[in-house]
Structure formats: C-alpha cells, structure tokens
Amino acid sequence: MEERRLLVSTLLAQSYLDKEAQKLAIILYDHSPLKLTDLIKLTGDSPACPTRLLEGLKILICEHLIFTKRSPEDDDCLYYFDTDECLGWLYHPLFALYAKEQMGNMAWDIVSYFTLHKSLTLDRCLTGIRAEYEAEHISDSVVQREFNRLAQLGYLKYDIAGLKIPKTESASEHPAKSKAESLEQKLRARKEGKAKGKAQRKRKEKETKTKKAEEEEKAASVPTAPAEPGEDHFYRLDNEKFVYQLRTLQLVKVVEEKLGADASLLIKAMLDSSRLLGPAQVHPTTNTFTFEQLVDITKDAMSVPRPALQGMVDQLCKEEFRCLERSEITDEYYVNIRVIVNELLNTLVGRILESKYGVGPARVYRILRTKGQLEENQIVELSLMPQEEIRNIIETLYKDSVIRHTELAPRAGSVMRFYTVRDSDVKDMLVRLVHKAIANVLIKSSEEDPDDKEEELIRKRIVLKGCVAEAADQLMALSEF
Q1: Which of 19, 70, 311, 378 is buried most deeply by CB count within 10 Å?
Q2: Torsional class of 211: left (φ above 0), alpha (ψ -120 to 50), beta (otherwise)
Q3: CB–CB of 119/234 below 8 Å?
Q4: Distance between CA 441 and CA 428 in Å, rounded?
Q5: Where are the domains of the chain?
Q6: Spelled out in words, what is the top-level CATH class assigned to the domain 340-421?
C-alpha cells in the first residue's frame, strides 16, 4: 500500500539511522525477501567487498528491523524487512506517556530514552539520561532502582541482538559481533564456491523431519532476562507488554462510559488478573473467577462490602451491554472482551467515517455492523432517513469497499440486495487513512518555519505530537478487527 510505504519511509527518515541503513531498509521493504547477492545488485555495492552493505545489515539486525530465514530452494539466507517492528515505533510516545501516568517521572525518563535508542545497558542508560535530560542532580541509585523495577515488571526485556553499532566502535567490540561475523562467513563461503549438491539436499530433508525437536532445543537454550540488570545485559522495551496495558485502558474506558466507574474498576481487575496478550479474536474472554476470587482481586481497588459487590456483579450480568457474564456450568464469572471491543470499534470507526463522509454514512455503518445483513428498506426504517439519501450513502460506501452486498432472486424477475459490512475491508481502508494522516503530520513536523518564535515552535510540536499519539491510539484499536 502506498500509504504504508510513505509512513515507513517517513519513520526511517526521521530516525537516527544513517542514510545507508535507511536506503537498505527501504530496498528490503520494497523487495524482501532478498538474498545477499540480490542486495549487492540493488545497492550497487562492490561484489568483492560489500563493506557498506554488511555494516547496514548489522545495524538493521541490531535494530530488529530485519530478520533472516533459510531459502527452501538452495538453503541460502534470505533477508526480510519487519514492517510491524518499524510501525511499532508509532506507539513509543504512548509508552512514555503511560509510564509517566502510571509509574512516575523517572519511569517516563527511562522509557523515553529507550524509545530513542531502542537497546541499552544499565550503564548507558544512566549516562544517557543525565546527558539527554540534564539530570545531573539525580543519583545513579535512583535511576538504577527504577530501571530494575521496570525490568522486573516486564516492561524491559532482555535483548540478545544488542545496540546499534556506534561509529566509534569496531565490529569486533560490538555486542552484535556474532551476527556480524556470521554475515561475513556467509560471504566468504560464497566467494570460496562452497558446493551445494546432493549432500545439502539430504541434510535439508533431515532438518525438515527434525524441525520440531530443533525448535524445542533452541527455545530451551535462549537466554532469559537476568534477575538484576548487569553491565553487559542489553535491554529493550517490551512492546507487547505496553500494548497490552494500553489496550486494557481502552477497554476499561469503554466500560466506564457505558456502566460507570465501579464497573470499570471490576473489569480492570479481571483483565489485569488474566494477563491475556493478543487481540480479542485470540482471547475473546478473560479467565473465569469465583466470587471469592473477585473479592480478593478487587479489595485494593474497590472498598465495597461483599453484599454490595455481589449485587453489582449480578446487575452487570443482566445489563444489555453484557461485558460480564456468568458460566451456568461452573457458576464462575468472566469478561466478554469481544463485546467491549465491538463497542470500541463501533465508536471509533463511526467517528472516522463521520469525519470522512458525514453523519449519515457513519450511522448506516453502525446499523449494518450491529444488525448484520439488511435490505435497503430495512436500513431506511432503522436509520429514519429518506430512501433517496440512503441510496446515495449505500452507493458511496459500496464504491469505497466499506460495505458489500449479496443478491438473492426469490422469484423470476425479482432481485433483492442485502448489504453488510466486512471487518477486513473496513480495517484496510481505515488503516490506510490513519497511515496517510500520520505520515503527513510527521512530514509537517519536520518542516518548521525558521521565522517562528521559540514559543510558537514548541506549541506546534506539542500539537503535532498529540495528533500522532491520537492516531497511534486509533491504530491500536483497529488491530482488534
């Protein structure tokens, strides 16, 4: 998609990656997967000694922007661009804001610094925060204590790849030495003309047969995060952990708007105790809880007597907005995440469509997503809008792939059309809109007027950052489709 490519290229251009690494990343985005020989041709580097290419690959591997797989044809190494990792940079301002609101200013400083430098040791984090935020007055013990807390809570995870290669260091001194050497060894093996014949194909067949066993062995050998960060331990932000927490806040906000503050506190306690990562398609409900467990998990957040809590739980199970349900078999309670997500998406998508098409089309979308397949007259009846206006709306939405129709012929010469929405089509369209909007904002933020006063520049930056954060929040919600 053109919008996604524009956004990826804008993010790379505004990152701290050097020009060669940015160029290589765009080539891989456009053409991946690629072999090393194909990369040499596309980059124009020297086939005999592709120094610039190897340095760029080292940097992108350490930044987790590319990953490798074996080619099924000739067992060669293929390089892939990780688009999700790059687009994940959009969420970093949200991570920093969440850290500030939930854990304080020191956590905010640490997370903000990680969003800029991606992978850090404790020592580099201490030095960098003092320099970046002019925090000479803060003692190392304070920063180290907060760093340890973030690591123990799971917001920082152990990073095997390590940092981007500093220009002052040689490759042999860098934590990614093993990965860099493996690239050079592959190139050396190619230059020496290593035979790839019958023996290689047999080995490939053998590897395929034992793939499961090898994966289990590899998983068992992956280093785990140390209990206490040491000097040589590299860490990076755990994006999945932050996204889960932000997603929980989104869902809790929906419940608060529909059912009130007490209900939202109960739902949040159940979501936090379940720790389910991934969208609602994967985890449509939380874990189940007995009433005694509900009393236990809500005792810190809610000062509600047991009879009042029991009454509230029973009432929530009877609400039309059935986000809390009780199992008839086990008599245990669980949160129906899918119900909350549907309400969130109806509100968000309706708001985006309203800004693009107007109030009428947004209302038609909400009706179709709630009711399913409807004929034109049924839409008119439910929307309380003139039939001619509904026809125009249907034509516009159908043209932009927001809705689809199915034709039925109940009798000869008669055709009935039933309209519906398909979530995948709507998601693709809305993601393109948001990607394009974010790219335009980022481009505008880099085009500052030199005649503006400092106060005006600061105000504009705050506004633009707010726009990006809001759009990233929308992308996070759209991932629930």
Answers
A1: 378
A2: alpha
A3: yes
A4: 20
A5: 2-81+166-194, 90-161+227-237, 241-335, 340-421, 432-478
A6: mainly alpha
Asked whether this chain's domains 2-81+166-194 and 340-421 adopt the same fold, the reply is yes
Q: What pLDDT, on the 0 to 100 scale, is given for residue 392? A: 92
241-335: CATH architecture: Orthogonal Bundle (1.10)
Q: pLDDT by residue (tens digit) across 154-213? A: 888 887 654 433 333 333 333 344 444 455 555 555 555 555 555 666 666 666 666 555
Q: Provide the mean pLDDT of the chain.
A: 78
Burial class (CB in 10 A: 0-12, 13-18, 19+), 460: middle
Q: What share of the chain is helix, strand, coil (3-state, %, to 5)?
A: 65, 10, 25
Question: If you classify domain 2-81+166-194 with CATH, what class do you get?
Answer: mainly alpha
**pLDDT score of 333:** 92
Structure tokens at 26: 């765009």
Tell me the mean pLDDT in the region 377-392: 90
Out of 22-26, 210-214, 280-284, 409-413, give the one with best mean pLDDT. Answer: 22-26
Of 326, 345, 331, give the one whose Cα is nearest residue 286. Answer: 326
Cis ω for the linkage preceding 47 (within 30 of 0): no
Architecture of domain 90-161+227-237: Orthogonal Bundle (1.10)
Q: What is the pLDDT of residue 164?
A: 39
Show the DSSP H helices in 118-210 as ranges: 122-132, 140-153, 177-191, 198-209
CB 302 within 8 A of CB 309: yes
Residue 384 and residue 382: Cα distance in Å, rounded?
A: 6
Write the pLDDT tens digit of every residue in 403-457.
888 887 666 667 788 888 887 788 888 888 888 888 887 787 776 666 666 666 6
Pair of tokens at residue 319: 């609400």
Predicted model pTM: 0.71
